[in-house]
Amino acid sequence: MSNLLVINSSLRSQGANSTALTENFLQQWRLQHPRDQIVQRDMATDPIPHLDEAMVGAFFTPADQRTDAQQALVKRSDDLVRELQEADVLVLGVPMYNFGIPSTLKAWIDHVARAGLTFTYTEQGPKGLLEGKTAYILAARGGRYQGTPMDTQSAYLRDVLGFIGITDVHFVYAEGLNMGEESFSEGVSGADSQINALLA
């Protein structure tokens, strides 16, 4: 039995293509792994706050010296880190906003990429501490960007996940979703085929 952590990062609480992609993935996953535990986070209904000076200051203050206010700030990040540490599989539903990831997903990354918890510094450079996990990136795009220089999402997510030790990363792309009905249908069916092939 595995633990799945699912992050839907769309800003839309209803009708998001990336969320529909995630739901389809989970439907297929449950058919094969009915006993797995699934934890879901929705950035539209429960957004992660962006880092600010107070949060960063709390992170770098020794735990036994933090004020109550700093403890409260760090607790949210600690809880997010714990969720990720306990997960065997990470699933990210990712729309493309202005050629990048949603800022709330970046905020989540900033909360979980923490020295001493998810990575550490060594004489050879940084080393990820979350080895042995698998990640699935479910990317929904209005245009077609896969394999082009305009797809900054894929390289960034692969790099940042590798930085914290998650190197088994798989991508599913639903593209051309805003380019007419036929393109939408092709994008969705293509993503379905990719999911089926990954989970076969």
Characterize the structure shown:
It is a single chain. The protein contains 6 helices and 7 strands, in the order E-H-E-H-H-E-H-E-E-E-H-E-H. Helix 1 runs parallel beside helix 6 (181-199) and helix 2 (53-59) packs across helix 3. The protein has a single domain, classed as Flavodoxin domain (Rossmann fold). It is of the alpha/beta class. The model has no long low-confidence stretch (mean pLDDT 96). The protein has helices at residues 17-32, 53-59, 68-86, 103-112, 152-163, 181-199; strands at residues 3-8, 37-42, 89-95, 119-122, 125-128, 134-140, 168-174. The strands form 2 sheets. Strands 2-1-3-6-7 form a 5-stranded parallel beta sheet, with helices on both faces. The two termini are 17 Å apart.
Short structural summary:
Homodimer. The chain has 200 residues and is of the alpha/beta class. It has helices at residues 17-32, 53-59, 68-86, 103-112, 152-163, 181-199, and strands spanning 3-8, 37-42, 89-95, 119-122, 125-128, 134-140, 168-174.
Structural key phrases:
alpha/beta; 7 strands; Rossmann fold; 20% strand; 200 residues; 5-stranded parallel sheet; two-stranded antiparallel sheet
Describe the protein's topology.
Elements: E1 3-8, H1 17-32, E2 37-42, H2 53-59, H3 68-86, E3 89-95, H4 103-112, E4 119-122, E5 125-128, E6 134-140, H5 152-163, E7 168-174, H6 181-199
Parallel strand pairs: 1-2, 1-3, 3-6, 6-7
Antiparallel strand pairs: 4-5
Helix pairs in contact: 1-6, 2-3
InterPro entries: Flavodoxin_fold, Flavoprotein-like_sf, FMN-dep_NADH:Q_OxRdtase_AzoR1, NADH:quinone_OxRdtase_FMN_depd
Protein name: FMN dependent NADH:quinone oxidoreductase
Subunit structure: Homodimer.
